[in-house]
Design a protein that fits this description.
374 residues; alpha/beta; TIM Barrel; eight-stranded parallel barrel; two-stranded antiparallel ribbon; 10 strands; 12% strand
Length: 374
């Protein structure tokens, strides 16, 4: 099965009431773990790469690893997604490398750390939609800045994230503004800010409504029920995985993630894409630390990479079942980017999603330096 765009997968998820975990990768072993989990659970998958991952792996390696995955697992629908594009250039370079979905994070300026203004966000996101939809590539946008409601700051991870203190208006997506944003940009999915953040250190205690505003998702869904919502920073930070790392020499401080039951609550309120990365990193790290401790004389990378890959696969399988995507792979419609381009142009997904033939490139701070030369 060829790689598919994000939109038809999320449409199917909405029609059938499930969510899809979006899993970050940097190397072959992580892709193998995801694909084995997908086969074991018969789940469609979203595999995503950040700018940092693209730089670490190199685009050509990443592209051909993904093509290998689609060839080796022909029964699994796969979305190849650019995570947190900082500029139109980054997103366009991803499209040129064969990504079937891109995220334009216009909530920050192209330095990936300075909160942007609303008009800037609309302009750069619409610019990406105009390009991406011409090629049948789906677009995720973001409104509001990811960060902690506990201490009012952004959470930088992998070179991306707001720095310094943020206002409550920046940390929580405004439902009325979300309506306008979706209408003006024509995006396929909207990432919302509601207290989640990247990395392991999300909450100092098990989160309650004052620091994890699930009600904000529900309010937004009521305003735009046909828009697919996205939860970023949604690893659950399992205590058993933290425990394994610390047992074998790690020093992870006490921390809490997003409870699975809260994510399931979000799925019932229109969340269709759930970003999970930290949980897999914890699983990999714990397995490697244990392998080193068990046999310190070993030096064959396969000795510690095999259990690391298996540990990540276990987490992926758990999330696939918990989010409801298990068993859905055979049912997801296979839509090519060529067909999607025709559908966008024909207005199948609404007039606002149709590429504007008269659009001009955004002038000013939009279109910064891409992740890789293109």
């Amino acid at each position: 099965m060829s790689l598919i765009p994000l939109r038809p997968l999320l449409d199917h998820a909405a029609q059938n009431g499930y969510g899809v975990c979006a899993l970050n990768v940097n190397d072959m072993e992580q892709i193998q773990a995801i694909m084995e989990a997908a086969r074991a659970t018969q789940s469609p998958v979203i595999i995503q790469a950040s700018r940092g991952a693209r730089k670490f792996t190199n685009d050509l390696f990443l592209k051909h690893l993904m093509l290998a995955a689609s060839e080796l697992y022909p029964e699994i629908p796969i979305v190849m997604h650019q995570d947190h594009g900082n500029s139109p250039d980054t997103c366009i370079s991803a499209i040129r490398m064969g990504f079937t979905s891109v995220m334009m994070d216009g909530s920050l300026e192209d330095d990936a750390k300075t909160p942007s203004g609303y008009d800037y966000n609309v302009a750069v996101t619409r610019e990406v939609v105009n390009v991406a939809h011409r090629f049948g590539v789906s677009v995720e946008g973001e409104l509001g800045c990811l960060g902690s409601l506990e201490h009012g700051t952004g959470e930088k991870e992998d070179g991306h994230g707001a720095e310094g203190k943020l206002t409550l208006d920046q940390l929580l997506t405004d439902p009325d503004q979300a309506v306008d944003f979706v209408k003006r940009t024509g995006i396929d999915a909207l990432a919302v800010a509601m207290g989640t953040s990247h990395g392991a250190y999300k909450f100092s205690r098990k989160p309650t409504g004052d620091v994890l505003a699930m009600t904000r998702i529900e309010e937004i869904h009521k305003k735009i029920p046909n828009c697919h919502l996205v939860m970023h920073g949604s690893s659950s930070v399992p205590q058993d995985l933290v425990g394994i790392i610390n047992k074998y020499g790690g020093k992870i401080k006490e921390t809490y993630g997003v409870p699975v039951e809260e994510i399931q609550r979000g799925i019932r309120a229109g969340v269709r894409k759930i970003n999970v990365d930290t949980d897999n990193r914890l699983a990999i790290t714990g397995a490697i630390r244990k392998a080193f401790s068990d046999k310190p004389e070993e030096f064959d990378p396969r000795y510690y990479l095999a259990p690391a890959r298996a540990a990540m696969q276990k987490v992926c399988e758990e999330r696939m079942r918990q989010f409801g995507q298990a068993g859905q792979a055979p049912k997801v419609p296979v839509v090519t980017t060529d067909q999607m381009a025709k559908d966008y142009a024909a207005g199948k997904f609404g007039e606002n999603a149709r590429p504007d033939a008269s659009a001009k490139a955004h002038v000013g701070k939009g279109g910064g330096v891409s992740a890789m030369a293109h």
